[in-house]
Amino acid sequence: MTSTKRRLIVIVGATASGKSDLAVRLARHYSAPIISTDSRQIFRGIPIGTAQPTAEQLAAVEHHFIAERGVDEPYSCGEYEREAIERLNKLFAKCDTVIAVGGSGLYIQALCEGIDDLPEIDETLRATLNRRLAEKGLESLVEELQRLDKEYYEEVDRSNPQRILRALEVCISSGRPYSEQRVGSRKQRDFQIVKVGIAMEREQLYDRINRRVDAMFDEGLVEEARAMYPQRDCNALHTVGFSELFDHFAGLITLEEARELIKRNTRRYAKRQMTWFRRDAEIGWFEAAEFDKIVEYIESQFG
RNA sequence: GGUCUGAUGGGUGAGUGGCUUAGCCAACGGUCUGCAAAACCGUCUACAGCGGUUCGAAUCCGCUUCAGACCU
């Protein structure tokens, strides 16, 4: 197969920066399908809170990885990488260009560069470790990590439970140090990649975020969240827009407080996204409205 | 015109002479290989102005400015 004809256009940017609209325009321009690189839009039942593409957008352009999973199904960027590459292969069989859009930096990295093949973790192991974390505290896990993987112990953020937990579960389930298996090599993909970032002034971005949250409330976010409340412990629902409303349902905060917290947490999320994307030197940055310049840039990069 | 009260960092709000960078919020910067819209880390040393008292003042005194309340 000719790898030179396969092109993946990756659209990145902060939440609410206008990625979806740009992606749809590009998809039409190139007659290309869209695959999502969003860790939350992949779930069913939460279209409002995760700002999934509208019905019109979904009807106009073929979308993938939107509302494909139940919130109770565990998912990860590793699984995403495998599925996305497989899906891309099918798509490239019938078209040259595919658009990828989404705000999950790690998923984008998994898609473009791949991540190490690490062992599957036994279902109950994480639960066990989580229980230990809750009962004995982080220190206990950190100490064990020091024994099992001195090298990683030295370099991890030892106050981050998630990192400690992950390292430990890999060490335990594989019987080998995590650091040994975490080589971080970049996988060679058989398609070309161009990354386009949407740049937007902070003030304007925050304004769009604030207004979008209000719009979500108008569209029925509260009802959507209420329907998901019974499944609130699912990781898929540890998401801005849902966590806050769950707190409201639990009587911890008022509805208005929840609304303001959702705005604030979305702003913070956007900030983290920008921190992530800023260090990716492969991204070409443009204003969302500069469609012609973007197309020109894409063409120049693909050569 | 007079009396009184108050003036703390972007916001809130303690702190009535000598370890307070109070705390909180917002904001900002960052980390990142399987929970990533997650989790975690870091930054933001102010006390209206001027002078005085004191070994030492956000804290005491005086004046000035500003704000509010009240009295003629």
Helix content: 40-55%
Number of domains: 2
Give the CATH superfamily of the largest domain. Answer: P-loop containing nucleotide triphosphate hydrolases
User: Main sheet?
Assistant: 6 strands, parallel
Number of strands: 6
* Strand arrangement, major sheet: 3-2-4-1-5-6
In round numbers, the mean pLDDT is 94
Gyration radius from CA atoms, angstroms: 20 Å
What is the oligomer described by this structure?
Answer: single chain
Global geometry: globular
Layout of strands and helices, then pairs:
Blueprint: E1 7-12, H1 19-30, E2 34-36, H2 55-60, E3 63-64, H3 77-92, E4 97-101, H4 105-112, H5 123-136, H6 138-148, H7 150-155, H8 161-174, H9 178-181, E5 192-199, H10 202-219, H11 221-228, H12 243-249, H13 255-278, E6 283-287, H14 291-302
Parallel strand pairs: 1-4, 1-5, 2-3, 2-4, 5-6
The structure holds one RNA strand of 72 nucleotides.
Describe the structure.
Helix content is 53%, strand content 10%. The protein has 303 residues and is of the alpha/beta class. The protein has two domains: 3-116 and 184-302, P-loop containing nucleotide triphosphate hydrolases (Rossmann fold, 3-Layer(aba) Sandwich); 123-181, Orthogonal Bundle (Histone, subunit A). A six-stranded parallel β-sheet has the order 3-2-4-1-5-6, sandwiched between helices. The mean pLDDT is 94.
